[in-house]
Amino acid sequence: MGAKTLHITNGDSLTDRLKELHLVDGELITWREMLCEGPTSIKIETEKAIAKRKEFLQKYYRISPADYQKKFVSQLEKLNTPGKYEEIILWFEYDLFCHINMIAVISLLLRKKIKDTPVYLVCSGRVENEKKCLGLCELSDIQLKKHFEDKTLLNLNDLELASHIWTLYCESNPKKIVGQIKKQSSFEYLSICLRAHLQRFPNMLTGLNILEHNILEMVDTYQIKNIKQLMGYALEYQGFYGYGDMQMKRVLARLFQFFDQTKERLLLSERGKLALQQKKNFYNTQMLDWHYGGVKKYDYLYNNETHNLLKL
């Protein structure tokens, strides 16, 4: 394997580690995006799509357009001629954050006509003798090497499914995603991630989504001293979302009305108790112009019983 291999990684820490270990030959592209948040376009490489992302990231995450240009668009431009590689290896993890990025990458690759180039996936997740799923950077050197050796060859059906789901993600009817959950593919964690995505919409009983609800439950269950400690818990026990500090800060900032801070610990406020017991709906206090792909978060409600979405 010479420079004829292209590796697309899910972030700087993995890119650095692969270089350090001299595990791979070829070219490395680092995918520095978080397409699971904010508005997205099917063709992420167009000027219009890039402008939309720059505006969102600056407004909500204070990432400057110049920074985005340097860290993401410059990497995107390296994908102008992916057909020159003999194989492409994707390094993405088991969580929603990574999977949304991954399906966007695959959609882009298919638009660039790489149908004859083998595409492999190195995906972390459940590891023998480990209680929780592990990210690629949490693997030991030996485990990482083994994951690389056992990489999955994605067939055309896999690639087309991923690309199709990306299209649906960018469109305005997330109900269509429900129909994709049970599709068979080589992506071990795709169904779980799609379910997790649907549960990001507000619950019809409380107006809070599953992640927000779980955070209230943590405050109720554990002796959590303050918001800083809650942040640690929320990151540790978030399940399949894969959010980093930046995303989780935004989630917590919207929940302050549900907490009371005493000297000793963080408690649920009266509102917090009502929300946790599903006795009151806080939809109106939570509403925000927040997008997931092509949809506004508060345009749909999630039904816990049927696992379906209800359009408002």
Mean pLDDT: 94
The radius of gyration over CA amounts to: 20 Å
Order of strands in the sheet with the most strands?
2-1-4-5-6
In terms of structural class, how would the helical and strand content be classed?
A: alpha/beta
**Main β sheet profile:** 5 strands, mixed
Apparent shape: globular
Helix content: 40-55%
- What are the secondary-structure elements, in order, as H or E? EHEEHHEHEHEHHHHHHEEHHEEEE
Strand content: 5-15%
Termini, distance in Å?
A: 53 Å
Strands, total number: 12
Low-confidence stretches: none
What's the helix count? 13
Notes on the structure:
Helix content is 43%, strand content 14%. The protein has 312 residues and is of the alpha/beta class. A five-stranded mixed β-sheet has the order 2-1-4-5-6. The mean pLDDT is 94.
